[in-house]
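Give me structure tokens for this 87-residue protein.
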Amino acid sequence: MIDTHCHLYSSELMNDIDGVMERAETAGVTKFYLPAIDSSTTEQMLWLADQYPAKCFAMAGLHPCSVKENFEEELAHIRDMLSQRAF
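Here you go.
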């Protein structure tokens, strides 16, 4: 089973991420697609994708709820991410 939209890198889940991953695997979830929220969560999202490269796949973007007055800065951040690694 594949979870196509999950924010496993949220602080609530990261406190026990190994346990979260173990329970998900027990439940049959084998892959996780991690949609971006905004630049404030990029580091955690990429760290998780690097820790579980066969299971967690980071996605670049800007969550609709995070579109604020600084949206141009957020879009520049996304362009930077896209130039630095594959998504």
